[in-house]
Structure formats: C-alpha cells, structure tokens
Amino acid sequence: MHRRLLFHPHCALRWLLCFLALAGASVALASSGDPAAPANRTLDVTHASAGPLTLTPWFDVLEDSSGALSFEQIRSPDIAARFTPSGRSGTALNFGITPSAWWLRLRLANPGDGALDRLLEVAYARLSHLDFYAPQSDGTWQHLHTGTTQPFDSRGYAHRNFVFGIALPAHAEPTIYLRIASTTAFVVPARLWEPAAFHAFERSDYAAQAWYFGMVGAMVLFNLLLFLRLRDWLYLQYVGFALSVAFAMAAQNGLVKELLQLRSPLWSDLCTSFGYCFSIASGTLFMRRMVEAPRLLPRLDPWLKGFIAFYFLSPFLFLVTGQALIKPMAVGYILAIAVVLSVAAYSAWLRQRSAYFFLAAFTLVCLGAAVYALHAIGLMPTNLLTANAIQLGSTLEMILLALALADRFIQMRRERAAMQKTMIDTLRHSEQRLQERVAERTMALEEANRRLEALSRTDGLTGLANRRHFDEVLASEWARSQRSGAPLALAMIDIDWFKAYNDHFGHLGGDDCLRSVAGLLAKCAARSSDLVARYGGEEFAIVSPHTTGAQMQSLLKELQRALAVLALPHPSTPSRCVTLCAGVAAHTAQSGDVAENLVAAADQALYQAKLAGRNAVVLA
Fold this sequence. Notes:
Elements: H1 2-6, H2 9-32, E1 42-44, E2 53-54, E3 60-64, H3 71-74, H4 77-80, E4 84-85, E5 93-96, E6 101-109, E7 116-122, E8 129-135, E9 141-146, E10 162-168, E11 175-181, E12 186-188, E13 190-193, H5 195-230, H6 233-252, H7 255-260, H8 265-290, H9 293-296, H10 301-313, H11 318-321, H12 326-349, H13 353-376, H14 384-387, H15 389-457, H16 467-484, E14 488-495, H17 498-524, E15 531-536, E16 539-545, H18 549-566, E17 580-587, H19 595-611, E18 617-619
Parallel strand pairs: 1-6, 17-18
Antiparallel strand pairs: 2-13, 3-4, 3-6, 5-12, 6-11, 7-10, 7-13, 8-9, 8-11, 14-16, 14-17, 15-16
C-alpha cells in the first residue's frame, strides 16, 4: 500500500514542487543575502580562518574579447585603468558561455606582523585555460598556466579543482591576477582559504564524491546481478545510463582529469559534454523499454529511436565545431529533459505501472539537470544547489529507482512463480521422460559424430592425420603466421626406394614399414602444436608453427638417426636399411602469399634430396 502511494503521480508532483521550492529559495538567497561590493577594494586576508572568503565582490574584471592581451599589457597604466569592479555579490562570477578571455585582479593585504599562507580555490573544474600570476619576494612574478586543456601536473596543487598557494609577507599588499578563458560555461567560484581549513574541507569534499560514486557502483553491481539473473535488458540499459551519468559527473567535477591524467586538450575540454549526451541517450533508451513504448506508444516510438540515435551521435559534432555548439546543446539538454518527462507523464496517464516509477525517480534528476543547464548558460546564480544540482538529483533518483527496479524484479518473480505452478504438475512427468530420451539419443549421436570426425581426419593404416586434415591445418597455420608474423615450417618426407621394398617384402611388409616410420615421426615431432600427416603412399609431411627451417632440418636429421637405430632391413639401399629423404621449407606468411607456395618449395627441396642420392635432408 505505502509503496503504491510513494510512486503515485500525485506523490511525484509533490516531489517536484518541493525541489522547485528549494531552487527558488536558493535563487532568493543568492540574489538578496550576499553583502554589497566593498568600498575598499583591498581584502584583509586575516579574516580567512575556519571558513573560506568568497572573492566574487573583491575582483576587478577586464574583458579581453580578442584574447590577445598579455600580462605585461594589462599591467600598463592605460589598460589597468580599464579594470572595473565585478559588481557581483554571489558566490561566483558567471559570464555564461562566451568566447572572450577575462582578466581578474585581486588586491590582498596582510596587516599583521607575521607572514601568512593562503590558498586560492577556483571551484569549477571545466575552465579550459587558467593563468595565475602572483608577485614574489624577489620582485619576479610566479606564473602557473593550467586549465582543463593542460596536463593535470600543470596545477600548482593536486586537486580536482584549481588551487593556488599564496605567500603573504608581513604588512604586504600583493595584487593577484587571473586570466581565464573557456569553451564551455564560464563560471568562476573563487574562494580564499586558510590552509588548515581547506585541507579539512578537502577531505570531506573527496569523501562526499566517494560516497556518491560508491552509490553509483552499488547500483551498477545490483542491476548487473539482476540482469544476469533475469536476462532482462532493462537492467543492463540502466547500468549504461548510470555509468554515463557517473562519467558526466566525474568529468564535470574534475575527477576524470585527475584520475585518468588526460593529455588530449580537446578530449579534456569536451568529455563532460560527451557524458551529458550519452546520459540523455542511454536514459531515453532505458525509459523507452521501461514504459514499453513500442507496445504502448507505437506511433511515437520511431521518433524516440531517432531521438536516441541523435544524442548518441551528437557528441562527435563537438570534435569539428568546437565552441559553436556548446550553447545550443545546453538548450538541447533542457528540451531533451522536457521530451523524456513528457513521454513518461503520458505513459503514466495511460496507467502504465512502470511509468509511475520512472516519472517519480527521473523528475528529480531531470530537474537537477535543467537547473544545472540554466546555471551553465548564466540564467541562474551559482550556489551549492545549482552547482551540484545534477549530482543531488541523480542521488535521489538512484534511491527511488532502486525501489522501482526491485519492484519490477518482485513482479517478475511473482508472475514466473504463478506460471510455473500451473505448468509444473502437468508437464513434470512427460518432460522427464522426454529429457531422458533426448539425452540418450544425444549421447549416441555425439559419440557417432566423434567417431566419424576421427575417421574423416585419420589415416587408417598409420593412425596419423590424413591428407584432408593436413590441408586444413596447413591453411589454418598459414593464416596464423600472417597474423602473428611467426615462421611456419613444412617438411615433405619420402621413404627411399619404397617400391623396391614393397616388391621384396610384399604389401603387408610395406604396411609394417609405413607404420614403423609413422611411429618414429610421431615420437620425434612431439610438440602439441606440430602436425604429422601421411601425405600419400610412402610420403609424409610435418607442419610445425613457430619453427625455422634450420630447426626443422635438425629435427629431421634426428629422425634419420632414430630410423638408423631401428635398422629396418632394406636390400635396395646402400646402407641395407630403410632410409628416408626430406625437403624442408620455412616461411613467414605475408599478405597475398598462398600456402601452396610453401608446399611447392618443400616438394622441390625433396626432389633435390632425391637427386643428391637420397637419405638426405635439403632446406629450400
């Protein structure tokens, strides 16, 4: 009863209204609760102790629309006079999405008698280019050039955001400069910290990130187990959505840059946009299956497929358009959210059970995404809620959707149990008998197939592989040599004056001779990867991968010595014993080569061995 009430559309509406109330309150606080810009433009840093000082009202700003001004130029009197107070009282400077570079000037003062250390944090990880300038005690300037497009180790302090150390001697009034340019949203939430306070905040901040991504990992594992148990693609689609959102959040928060140490400037700058597009596409794919759109909304479903395909492919447009599509895509994210929620709401109106769950869970994450998109294009202020809206909404969505997917699992189990109960009594006996018969016939058929397979690949006289098996293995090893670049060796072997042996000892004796030679071949070529085959008549062949010609030649000479020790009598040979000659060819297969060339080379070498008087091994 309570679970049905929780996911009723009216309950989802109440969640939506509560979230809107929180957003409205945050906007009101951001617009009315901050102090006015100070009359004295120099900030006394001794005020930073347990908490941070918001620097937004203390900045003087200068827009560089061409992006060409140098540090020396902005310090010249005529350009320095063009700096104006920020006029902002919130927690961040927000210029929306702009191609301009901006210079920020901050005057600090340490009126005390002791030197102080402070940390300046710019708590927005997506700024593409950020230059920090601070005066040094020797009259020079410290310059750090960093940003999302720069290597992570370019930062003065290893952190997911941008943190710069500032040393302030006693009675000093240094001026700090920042130059910022970004292809994405231009948000600068700058704060000044006392080091100990920042380190305490840093630990809790990373703990919160670990908590969020730990929850995502738990949800991914939970749904993977459900997928493996139920084979329902819905759970795997949700895994894709959860991973996409987690990647987008990690990129947004600077964790992808920190953990993966990305070097590519373009990928570093656009990986968050990729994550957002894939999140929308995978979320819509999940929603389409959850609300059974192909059955419930057959006319709308093709449009949903096109919508999904567009958002899967649209991120790659950023690779060729750069900043041009950033702002339109931010608007596109808001429209996509509206489409997804509209489809879910309509499905819920049609009383589709899963749509209630989807609407209740995804209203929060979609609203969070909309708030963040409005914040990114400068239409909402920067504060704790707007800066973390997607992450907050995603957290609530995962909690609610965990109940939804668990409910689906329970429903499927109940339906399956009911079906099994009606069927099991009527089918158990007949199924058992059928299984026994099928098992018996299957075993018999498999055994027959094994025998036939062995017979089709084995020479009946010698027990070696036959010509058919030889051709198959040679083709396979030739292809493997082409892929791996490893040598392949082939030996063609012939028993010397075997016709005379047959004439003297008869065909039965000849058969015994062939079996004896075959046994020696199998024993000498003992590697599991080698193939020994009867090529035809008294001729044998050895295929040996990863073997050079010299190695194969050495193996065959060892075989000749073993045959000499065996001393099979043969009155027609000079040694009065059975001997053999062999041709060896080895080659690393190249593209366009054919295995027949290797066989021809080995045959030619065998012919040379016969011309040399037999009982010889010739390398092609």
